[in-house]
User: Fold these one by one.
Assistant:
Number 1:
Amino acid sequence: MGWLLIVLVAVPLAGAAVLALPAFRARGIAVTFGTTVSGVALALALAAVAAFAVPYGQGGSSSPSSPNSPGGPSGSDGGGLGGDMRLQTDLPWIPGLDLRFHLGVDGISLPLVVLTTLLTFLCFVHLTRHPPVGGRPRALVVTLLVLEVGMVGTFLALDLLLFFVFFEVVLVPMYFVIALWGGTRRRAAAVKFILYTLLGSAVLLIGLLVVWTQAGTLDMVVLAERHGGGMSRSAQILAFLAIGAGLAVKTPMWPLHTWLPDAHTEAPTVGSVLLAGVLLKMGSYGFARIAIPVLPEGAAAFAPWLGALAVIGVIYGSLACLAQWDLKRMIAYSSVGHMGFVLLGFATLTPVGMNAALFANVAHGLITGLLFFLAGAVKERYGTADLARLGGGMLRRLPHMGSLLTFACVASLGLPGLAGFWGEMLALLGAFQPAAVLPRPLFLAFMAVGGAGAVLTAAYFLRMLSRVTHGVHGVEPGGAVDVTSRELAAWVPLVVLIVLLGLWPKALLAVTTPAVQAVFTSGTVAP
Amino acid sequence: MIAIVALIILLPFAAAVAGLLGSRVGWRWSAGRVGGGSRTEPRDLAAGRRAAWFAVTAAAVSTALTLWLTLRQALDLPRSVAPLRPGGSGFWGSFLPGRVEGTLTLVETGSVPISVSLRGDGLSVLTGILVVVVALAVQVYSVGYMRGDPRYPSYSAFISLFTAAMLLVVYAGDLIVLYVGWEIMGLCSYLLIGHWWEDRASSRAAVKAFLVTRLGDVGFLFGIFTLGMAAGSFQIDDVLSADIPTGTLIVATLLLLMGVAGKSAQVPLQTWLPDAMAGPTPISALIHAATMVAAGIFVVARLYPLFLGARPTLDVLAVIAAIGMLGAALAALAQDDLKRVLAYSTISQLAYMAGALAAGVGVAAHGDAGGVGRVGGDQAAIFHLLSHGAFKALLFLCAGAVIHHAGSNLMSRMGGLRTVLPVTFWTMTIGFAALIGLPPASGFFSKDAVISVIEHSNGAAQPFLYGSALLTVGVTGAYAARAWLRTFFGPIGVRPPPVPRSLSRSLPRSLPRSMVWPIVVLAVPALLFGFAWLWLTWQGGVGSGVGWGVDWGSAAVSLVVALLGAGIVYALWRSDPAQDPARLLGPFRVPCERAFYVDSAYAALVARPILRLARGVVRADAQVIDGAVRGSGRATMGLSGLVRLAQNGNAQLYVTGLVAGLLLIAVMAAVILT
């Protein structure tokens, strides 16, 4: 089954290459073609889930009692039930540099791979009836397919430099998406986006190279198993600082977030959805995959700082949202707050914290993806996303749209029973009892601040809802068309998943927990 | 058996889903295109009918199942009760000995696992009965009350969702599961207060209710963390039986108290409840009087052994209750809006329950402390919770009928409705009698139970609490008498033409039957529930050797005080029926009417500073943080501009630089080598 992941990366790449041929210049089929290709990618991702689940089930049935014993020695279970890498492909790539084309999935990356292919597919579904404002649909489809290659590859790569290559591949298509199909001030936003994130990537690369020179290998699996062995404490701290800073730009962590609001505000709907839904996750995924498992001592040294910046981001993002007048900008700042919870989860250096971060990652991808779809639809109908000009009364004029917006906001503010809750709750739970090496009173303070942030999050979303959906006065939307069936086709999967993960968090936690426990238990076993 | 419990919860949930998605099947898209106007169209009516069927059927079946479960528990058919109920209060067990529990699955979190589990014991079943009965009554009542509202389907679906969430709280076997239901209730409250969202006041009230309760809920969640991590499990049974150090217990219960204060509208988080009256009246009856606001009391009773182990928490609760009951009663005395009178009265009555809980286990009167058959504050509180649920829901539903007839919430616009609305008059009289605590209404017995427990408690704040409770009895008599007199007696008020509440209210003046029946049915428990409780406890008491009677001494005192309060108001009103008896408050009338300016204080101390801070953050973000980013960009450009000066295309300059460089290297080489 090792070929599956290669095909998963190759399909969008081949699709982009084929579509770039001049023979496809004919109008109209580009988006359909893109939809098909991304649909195939989604099917492949689901096949990977199936392939992942089969041995998982077998492992579970062979030892049915062990998962039900809480507090028992779960390290061995973690290794056997999904903590290990699956579907690996390991080919020599540049033998002179000992670079390998090494792909694989485990419980940490699998949900993100599915999320990426799903969101890309839904973006194409959305595009079938909503052609890009800037024209050139074929170019957009090619760009998005290349983007998908980079995103999926980032989550699958198990070689540090391969990871970096995919990480960089993403930037260029996203730059073009913003610069060519964006809003009125798209150029400045795009330039800011690419310069800022490239700077982050440069720092990230330095960190990766430090790891390489110190540990002598680029293989993430080996590095994670060593758990920092072979690297001095100072080297780990240096490497964590560089890698963490590079990832923090992408995540984004306060105060490295200012590229995000501009990029989101100017990007077209599909760009915003993928930016918030997937690109930000690449940063946080890096923490889960590289920074924390490979550099445990560096992580322990910086965790209090990471936690502090995370909760500052939560409060700061919420406050910024509270005084925001642009819908898309508000959602962008809400991402700063939500990713703050993700980072807080990582900062606790506990299995529950990392579980929280991974859950919040996926939930944020689904919810904020939906929010940006809705914001785009609002902007399309009203011609503006300015809250003051939108006025109120959306529930009267566009009842379904208003209801969906309410749903998405309620999900985003972390209501239990919807996906947004579990990540936040578990992150706070992690902060309640952080890893033994961390100062507990400090993290208790972080928890309290994070809790206040949760209230502020509710405050800005409800204020926005009250302003936009309630009341009677408001701008007449052009055409007064409520949600179309094609929009619904793109949104309903997100709604269903948000409800499903909210009501049955085990669906995701059962996948991530063994992998997360493998990250931490191997550290305690091997000194 | 646990499947029955699950079914009781899932049926309303299914009704909510069906009501939201299914009631407009077939017209969905065409309805969306025209924009869902406010006109009452045939398809709206059809959708409403369908939604009503979903909602009422689910509520009725849930009620039937709950009653069956109660019967089964009372008879204890399974006979498989564990002999030891760790930490659970034995009292419910004395007449509802049965107990069901089940765990669906265990969710591993990497830390303490979450168990998706339910449990139905005496306390759950008792509270569950209240929830389903009031929910059924309100659903039926709403069919008439909301007739012609184009948004009735979502309205009834949200009530169903609320019912499911509250039942989840009641039957939860795990604290996190309880929290899930707890928050979903808050959401339903938000959605239903904001049902008439065209009205800015409704919208604001809804947001306020959600935010204030959420503020408390964050503390509640942290309290759950503290308990769960200390006990190593979030299961309620494990938490109750765990050996938790007192310090941790105090912290945890104080944190839980935040959530309780938020949900049950206790000081200092009480301000949302009066504003929540902007919602439809049946919602006020169900959520903001009978059930959701009682959830806080229920949770304390559920975890009562923990609170008993944390005496300082109970003292804090006593102070909160003492301030809340008297303050809210005084505020109720000064309100002109009938629903706001009832809202403040709810805060006051909830504070009674909190006071009973704060009293702890009555050592003097009836039983030995901590024993299996002990008589504690939790029973008195739950007794009052149940009777209050019945009579306050009744009062609200009657108020809805009155308001519907008078076309206004204001009592100054009412008066003389006794003859016009005879059924409402009599049922509401029962409700007020229960509220004041006149025998033989249920409120007499339950309030007596509460006051007797408070009287015999020995906490640090006991004198304060007891004094406040007695005073409040008098004020309660006063405001109830005032509301009763100004609504049903005296000159007929100035009737404005019925203002349509932003929707087509072409209701006939006479009440539809669907509104009358729930009122009449609820009047029965409001009147007689006290006897039923006495009988039940007596039945249960036979076995364990203790029971609950009436403490005649304290009952006589409070009855006299209540009649005194009512008598003063009556005398004042008698002297001039056109004038408001609230004038007896004199200069304190305005502060009471404004509820002691707590709202203004919060606006000035919390809301506005936060908004100012938010604006500051936006400015700082643009100028400082992003300014640094842009500044670094500009600095780079500036530096490159300097460097560019060297690249001016002048060959002479390049050669000069080359020669100078060579010279420099040569000199350096010479210096280093020599």
Note: Residues 56-81, 523-527 of chain A have pLDDT under 50 and may be disordered.
Number 2:
Amino acid sequence: MRSAAPLLAFAMLVAGAAFAQDSSGANTEAVEDDGVRWFNSDGVPTFKIEADGTVDWPTFSGYRRYHSECHVCHGPDGEGSTYAPALKASAMRLDYYEFIEVVASGRQVVNAADNQVMPAFGTNPNVMCYLDDIWTYLRARGVDAVPRGRPAKRADKSEAYAEAEKACMES
Amino acid sequence: MKRWSLSVAATLLVGVAAPALANDSVLTETGNAKQWAIQTGDYANTRYSELDQINKDNVGDLQVAWTFSTGVLRGHEGSPLVIGDMMYVHTPFPNTVYALDLAQDGRIVWKYHPQQDPNVIGVMCCDTVYRGLAYADGLLFLHQADTTLVALDAKTGEVKWSVVNGDPAKGETNTTTVLPVKDKVIVGISGGEFGVRGSVTAYNIADGSLAWRAYSTGPDEEMLVDPEKTTHLGKPIGKDSSLNSWEGDQWTIGGGTTWGWYSYDPDLDLIYYGTGNPSTWNPSQRPGDNRWSMTIMARDPDDGMAKWFYQMTPHDEWDFDGVNENVLFEAEIDGTERKLLFHPDRNGIAYTLDRETGELLVAEKYDPAVNWTTGVDMDPNSETFGRPQVVAQYSTEQNGEDVNTTGICPAALGTKDQQPSAYSPKTGLMYVPTNHVCMDYEPFRVSYTAGQPYVGATLSMFPAPNSHGGMGNFIAWDPVAGEIKWSLPEQFSVWSGALATAGDVVFYGTLEGYLKAVDAATGNELYKFKTPSGVIGNVFTYEREGKQYVGVLSGVGGWAGIGLAAGLTNATDGLGAVGGYAALADYTALGGQLTVFALPN
């Protein structure tokens, strides 16, 4: 994973100006679909919201998994809690690979003022198999492409997604 | 089993060496109304004080007498203890303990700062809360987040012994207080969201050696039950009562943790506590009644043997842990004076049972919004006697995996959570802090990894629809009639423990940070003061040099601080409602402070 990061940074430098970005400057536009999920021009997973508000399945799945695994500390809808940061903001500040690393390895801020400990989820299939889903959900929240609460309309789970999910959860 | 025989030997030795039993100490100290010697006010968990200098006529004049910063942010549950001249203040993780000398204006006589691996923070489900210290025979019992139980010399803060009760690497943590009974200290465990198999353990006060451990689930001998003598609703539970109620070995990761409040009846010589949710939150992954999760347990404190069980929510589908307080009181039922137990459950039903036999006497909703059940079957001849009648529309099991069941009341927070009630023998009423929140709940399949969250449901919460718009109520409840006497709407869940006094006043805190005093008879508000942070601590009282004091810890957090910080939304209301509900973050910020009140001189 880590070795890919410099390549990505390079690609962003080159491609940054050429591709459409949303108003926040984040590259969230879906340009490519591998059957499982959508990717942006950098090959990073992203969400795809149809004109009628239909949310792609992986992003909807990210909503579900977030509100199972993450919200017990980070609050509903990526909004943060009394002690854990709002992940809808973290997902805009961190790049995809940093995000993956924090979730897999954890993070600690323990000092006189803070006792913040994010556990390592690297061995947890309920998180790791859905991490791209959670990422696209939080990015969608971060640019307000998806409102608070449960997405009202969602695409169905594709066969390719179901296969990939099964392979990951049973591995 | 080896441990068992060792502990029996240890008990015998203690019996010879220390004839003064801890329950004498606890009964003596809690019998002095000038002190606050146990988290729950007394063994019966009444949270009632005989002090009456502050009364309903003068409570409006209350002023802040002194304050103390704990030096820790995050959720402050529980309360300090007051014993003699000393006040003992605890904090959330890192579980610092301060001994303050009230005779020297609160000077810090000693401070104990345990060294704990901060990794435990990451496996605590809902903030790093700790519901406080216990005291017996000159020892303070600190039960750390990492499940280390420490006996401290109350005079010096010196560690007398320490023992480790669980393994945070498996998600086993502690949030609750312990109960000293006779020559033992009774200890619970947290971690239902990590598939922890719940248990209660007794350690010998003399040296910290293990006396007995009773699991909530599993084989009879590990649950310390007698299949012929331990009863459920008046009948023997029978052989393999737990094993028969689970599919396969799901019970080994099936929850039933014991993180609530403990009470003790010295005459019947029984301890009472409740067990938590079965794991996972996806009911389809654990067919059966999942015994004995969601159960009130009555046990003999000497050997842990169970006398009776009552399972409130068989095969939970909503995360309605059964760990809430059991308040012991006496009242007349059908002309006969009975020894009773009151239990306001997460599931929205308030139960009154005979605490000697476990007979079910009253089971009524204590929030009219409760809709997942039509009520409890009270017909002893019925096959479903004692069971809640589940409404199919709100059954996450019947609707199935990957289906979003909407509009369930109450939410997983329950009609109440750990925030303990108070009981006034003068009014015969229970004063119950409650939540008024509903939810959508979608269960789905999850796999188990040791030490990782094992949840398996997505839920979103919102204030009870078609009501006052707030997320809480503070109610007075008649535990014999099973009726609400009065109900005060609150903007947020009331996550603070109540205090009732002989001055006919009831106190409680709010998430915005108010300490409130109300008339015990009518609920009329008599006083309020906004403390520096939201209150999830429990109100307590004590007397010094002829003056009564009332205190409470501020420090917003806990589950309430997670769910309500950013405000709640109802997805089914659509876009228009977003931001329409109050966000706790607009009212208060993190803190960690004790505020003590008194009447002016």
Note: The domain at 2-598 of chain B is CATH 2.140.10.10 (Methanol Dehydrogenase; Chain A).
Number 3:
Amino acid sequence: MLSRVANSLYWMSRYIERAENIARIVDVNLQMLLDLRNLDEERLAQHWLPIVETTGDETQFFQLHKKATGQAVTEFLVFQTENPNSLVSAICQARENARMIRDQITIEFWEELNRLYWFVKTPEARRIWKESPSEFFQQVKNSSLHLIGLGYATLLRNEGWWFVQIGKFLERADKTSRILDLRSGALPEKGAPEAAGQPEALEWSAILHSCSAWDAYKTLHGAEVHPRGVVEFLLFNDDFPRSARFCVGQLNHALRRISGVPDGRFCNDAEKLAGRLVAELQFSTVDEIFGRGLHLYLDQLQSKLNDIGAALFDAYIFQQFNNLEDEIMVQQEEQQQQSRTIRKTHL
Amino acid sequence: MPTKPKTQPIKRLLSHYEPSGFFDEMLDGEGRIRPHYRQFQELFQTLTTREFEHKRQSIDLAFLRQGITFNVYGNSAGAEKIFPFDLLPRVIPAGEWEMLERGLAQRITALNLFLRDIYHEQKILRDGVIPPSYVLTGKHFRREFVNFNVPKDIYIHICGTDLIRDNKGQYLVLEDNGRCPSGVSYVLENRRAMKRAFPAMFEGIGVQPVEHYPQELLKMLHHIAPAGVADPTIVLLTPGAYNSAYFEHTYLARQMGIEIVEGRDLVVRDARVFMRTTKGLQPVHVIYRRIDDDFLDPTVFRRDSLLGVPGIVHAYRAGNVSLANSIGTGIADDKVMYYFVPRMIKYYLDQEPLLANVPTYLASEAEDQKYILENLDQLVVKAANESGGYGMLMGPKATRAEIAAFRKKIEAEPRNYIAQPMISLSRHPTCVDDDNYFEGRHIDLRPYIIYGEKIAIVPGGLTRVALRKGSLVVNSSQGGGSKDTWVLYGDE
């Protein structure tokens, strides 16, 4: 498979997953506000600012907006194309990558992604969003889930497929950890949290809803929402397809399907780092994490995920790539040498 | 403005349509439907206006959804348009097509012999059939490739020849596109859309298929593989996702099941071409390139080209990789060479041309130049090496200032200009507004000729239509659209 193609498949998949997760985050937060009364401006800013921080673009946000009001934050996260990580930007990027590898994906997959692109680009999308943000986010989420389903049902299980999986699970693990991080500020810096009061419980429930984890959590833990339970569930659950452990496990598996190297061994840094992270997520407890501080732990988790992404790039995408000037020079040297040998043989 | 009654579209078409003054493809001089359109008419008249409208909208939407679009240059990124599609098909009877097929085959054979000759012995120049200076000073004559042997002696592997019909209905060749002709994907997609919208018509009428084009193309690419390579790796080289024909590139690559690569995916080592893959470098043997000569290799042609592959020409010369089309075919697209094609046919094949040229005057011949300059307001003047409807003067429609400007250009560089009388292109009923109202619009035809072990031409080609009223310019970049082209199994 062409390295460029692998790269585009990976990013296409990451951006689709990113768009879906932004929809999840913003949707849940808007709904949560409906449950909280009497919020003054400061409380509102306290609510919205962590969401901007979650996507990691705080500086840019304040270049474009004065205050972290609900409207400014949602505009920034959803529609603003100046923000390269906004929902609309992510969909544009996903489609742009798909366009470059149009021959590698099925017509069904392409048409759905293209449809989503034209949907968010129309005034109709904004109208729906104004009338009912939930409806808008629902459409984006559905489209993303539809794409995942189309992928499972129509894409060839070749090397490219595993790059798609890696992009998806890397992004999902990262976003789950960032969603969880939304509440880490409310916890004691170190040590296990107390049972949550009513407003806090609502916010922790919102976290579960963001990850479509509400029903699964209830099955395991009952209706009472405890911060400790939520953290454990979203980080360490073996079977929930959005938990960090599950995602990193899948990511590790996909890496090995590309190289053919079995578990417990590695042939490049991406596999080494992914293997380590799997082990860490398998052999850690939630109490250890609270002992070190949740925020710190999540921060480190995110940078480990970044390292895996960078190592993947080194291993498969950019090997032996000269810039154009160097390449021209290499060619000229080669051709000159050759004409010299030819001349010699003629003598 | 004529009234628009709510009847079936075909009845309205006949009651308001005025074919006067031009050759109309569907109606004869008395306004009767021509025999080869009768079956279509019978089926089409069962449609109500509403059904027609519904089919039209669903096809447009399908094209947008599938991303069957072209990019508009000089516009911000993401400026994509669908190539407007008109539902009324252009119909060609079998007998007429056979004549065209023979004429096109004759023409490409002569062109390939001409290219082989001017890059080797140059007999046609020595025998005085074509003045040598016309070839040797041609902008796209690649003297570096004189005495170079291209695989199987084929220069033009894919040719898109533009045909028009004059006011008597005679077919004329307008130009040959022997470099990277585009548009064939629309032939295939238009057919697919029409089959979806009107399945019963295809059953009833009997239309020759076009779907085998990608197989014919792939067969040809296999045929030209370097000697000794049994199972060649074939790729399509595209300038990238921002090229106006990118959709077509991915489409053809997918249909042929070959890899689509950009310049940066390829690398040359030891005069061999490789592609960068996740498993390292892999050899490439045949390249269907959709990049012009000028941009192909920055070590040989334009140094500032970011699209090309440094060293690829070296590998080509070494015989380790084959290119389609070959380097140096641009000289055959030169409009001055076009003038000589009938003579080439006579010289190399000793045959009379089956397809006539449009009468052409060369500005570099004294007598012709005099005529051109005296009749600038009557003629169409074209730059010898421009395409896409650019660099031309439409005399009858031009302002005085435009004519004066062209006069200067012609006098300064006569070698670069030719002139032709204004040909009134044939017209075809075409849906012209949202109320499904029909008017005659000018059309042309671009068949795609593949020259491999044999010559293969899929029946029909791309019918382009100038959607602006009275316009003769059919290019997609200038308000053109397209129609499906039906070649019948019989003559009715």
Note: The longest strand of chain B covers residues 438-446.
Number 4:
Amino acid sequence: MSEEFKVEIVNPETSFLSKEDVTEVIVPAFEGEMGILKDHISIISFLKPGILTIHAKSGEHKFYVEDGIFEFKNNNLSVLTSSIFDLKKIEKSRLLNLIKVAEEEASKQEIDDQSRFLIDQKIEVLKSLN
Amino acid sequence: MASLDDLKKRITSVKSTQKITKAMKMVAAAKLKRAQESAEKGRPYSEKMNNVILNLSNGISDKETAPKLLSGTGKDKIHLCVVMTSDRGLCGGFNSNIIKKAKNYFGEILKEGKVLKIITVGSKGNDQLKRQYGNKIIENISFKNSKNANYFDAEKVGRIIIEKFEKEEFDICTIFYNQFKNVITQIPQAQKIIPLNTESADENELEDSYEFEPDEDEILNNLLPKNISTQIFKAMLENSASEQGARMSAMDNATRNAGEMVDKLTIQYNRSRQAAITKELIEIISGAESL
């Protein structure tokens, strides 16, 4: 029996990626990283800033995501996100810029605990990439 | 009757107008193609988003505790209308159609004695509405500097709307935009985004039970603001495709009209030229005869 399922990543402007031969996806879900294999129970959750890893027959792909939601149903994983970058293609200057913006945000006083948590997370992930 | 020289000038001027309208038509056609493509590309996102929300809202048993963005404030006293138009003119009835639709709606709301607040997106809508509803317009957003409709701009509008909702500045929010059907038809739409219309839920297969992590409420709270931006973005995409379509057909008409005018003027020019020649001949002949 094949162990593959389908992954679709869409962002508002275009359908970012669609793959049929995926064996495992690791998503940075809000409550912790989560590995999804075939025949996982139907689930909806949202993402925190992190690295989304796709293991496919054709190789491994890594993406940086900032926010969004994902839905797994009938062996179909859909990821909806407004900010996603392919780690292979992202330029260093872009990365540095992202860190700068995030740090500026983090230095603001009036943000609540949840967004502070998210921003700290974001900075951490971005720095580990750098 | 206009002199020959005047006619000649007229013809050249109409011809150069025709050149401009023709060029504008070409530009609109090229832009339309791009706008249509991005509208199509953007569709999966909003559809998926919608599906997830329908699934989620079905999972919520207690409507009382449902997020306010979904169920509304329970009142319908203050209406916020977001009128989305273009930033540029010369696109036929594109802007007027939205405005007409919006004005009808405004009239109804005011007749029922409710409070009306307006946000205009795009400067043309603001221009047309400010005379009659100037005191009702609370915000005017324009994206003159952005070349194409992009999600970043949509998010900006979404954030403004949500901010106002959280401050309880309105109960019901409706957006007005043109839906792109084809190049000659654009349908003005009024879409309610707060509270969200979940009535179509029955049509989808919803028997699946989901696992939610964290719980439904929290996901919905996270998702609904995003959905608003998504809806706005969708409207912006539809609008930009419609705008280019409308401009293309308007400019096509203008080019054709200019062609007709050139033909008419050319005939008139030839006639008067011939009349002048005939007149001169008569003068010469009668002059010769008198000798």
Note: The helical segments of chain A are 92-106, 113-129.
